[in-house]
Each structure stands twice: as C-alpha cells, then as structure tokens.
Amino acid sequence: MASLPEPAALLPVEPSGVEMVAKFFRALSDPARLRLLEFLLSDEHTVTECVAHIGLTQGRVSTHLGCLSDCGYVQARRQGRFAYYQVSDPRVAELVLLARSLAADNATALAACMRISDTA
Amino acid sequence: MASLPEPAALLPVEPSGVEMVAKFFRALSDPARLRLLEFLLSDEHTVTECVAHIGLTQGRVSTHLGCLSDCGYVQARRQGRFAYYQVSDPRVAELVLLARSLAADNATALAACMRISDTA
DNA sequence: CCAAAGTATCCGGATATCCAAATGTTAGTG
DNA sequence: CACTAACATTTGGATATCCGGATACTTTGG
Hints:
10% strand, 6 helices, DNA-binding, globular
C-alpha cells in the first residue's frame, strides 16, 4: 500500500531493466554510430578526425559521439579546444565482436529481413 | 583498377559489414523485441504465450518474432497450427548478458541520455 | 466440407530518428 | 580585444518505426 515501496522507485522516469538495455542497444543500431565506435575501438580520435572518417557533418558527428559517450561506450577527454574520444571498457570490444560473429553466421537471413528497413 | 575486385561485390544490395551489424543490433533496440527474446532464452513458447507475456496484439507479436527469427536470434519450429519459438544459439545469451552488464554500469548516464528517446 | 483456432500479413496513423544547415560556446592566437 | 578553430546545440524536414485493427492463410476438428 505504501506509495514508495523502494528508494529506487523514486525516479519514475528511469526505465526499468529491459527498457534500459534496449536503449543501450539502440545506440549501436545506427550505422554511423557503429562505424564511429569501431573507429574508436583501437585509437583515440578527435571530432574532426571522426568527421573526416565517416563523412557526415561536424554537428551530426558531435551528437553521435555524445550519444556514445552518454551510453558509456566511449570516454571523452578534453585537451584545450580538442575533444578526444576513445573506447575504454574492454567489454565493448567483446560486445562488438560477439555481434559480428552472430551477424556473420546469419548474413543471408539478416539481409533478407525486410521488417527492419532496407535503408542500409 | 578492376571493376570487380572481389566476387562478394557482385551483390550491391547486400549491406556491407557495419550496416549488417547495425541492423542486427537494431533488432534488439526495441523493448518489446528484447522482452520477447529474454522470454525465449530459457524456454520454448508459442506466439499466443508470447502475446500473454508482453501484452501486445497477436499480429504485432508475430511480426516481432519473425524479425527475431530473420536475424537469427531465435529459431522457429512448426507443429501443426502452432509455432514454437526459442533461442538456440548460446552466443545470444552471452550477448544479452554482456549488454546487461555494460548497461548496468552506466545506468545513470544512460538514463540521462536524451539523444535516444525518452519513450521508455 | 465448414467452422474455429493459431498464426501471418496488410493498413493508415502517431511518434521517433536521422540528416544538413545554421547558430552557440569555449579556447587558443595575433 | 578581435578572430579563428574546434566542438556543441538547435531547427525543420524527410524517412523509419511501432502500434492496433482488420484481413488472409493454414491446420485441426466435427
């Protein structure tokens, strides 16, 4: 009957478990962001370098990087007027490798899946 | 110089690597599909059982299951007029666990990320 | 064969997402 | 103190995605 059964429930805005993980996956569901993440897996790069690498506008790249940073995929480091981004958690590489492995084994079926968009 | 440097390039429709993996991730970026996938991680279930579990329309659930099947996350088995779905590849569980682990460690930042939608 | 259960597909409509372009902000430079 | 470079944020428009409801398909049962 208590209106506040648990302390953590004080924030109704916070998505519960599954919603959070879905949001986490959504960050990698965009080709541009995934490309950026892979670019940042090995080395540290500035926003301008990322722009040159994927060919989108600077504003869009900045937003994408901010998104990846918010989700914990990459870490941002400020040095003067430069912003350096890089993957810090080794589990991120694991996740990408695992997904690549699974996707590769279902490549043909995946390509045929019209329920997700052919924009790719 | 050759116009066709590699045999695999003969199919321009097929998304190249990154696009494919992004599509793969996109399947898990929807809370309903992720909920279904977790439901099918341990046991085999029919479409009707899935409908009862997540509370969406039958048509929608069927489409979601088809999507998960196309992407290779679950396997479909036909028995009379029933369709049984289940996760078959153990790497799928690994992927979900890894994502849960990463998402949990970035829960607060993730919840604050407004670049991805607050619909959750 | 006809009816019903289980499942798959099609349909607009509401919302979310991505983009380029323009504008802000901050930190070096002359 | 202008001025520029690097980065961040905002805006409006096009497209994608998700949804319920209606409909078609398939198999079992009478």
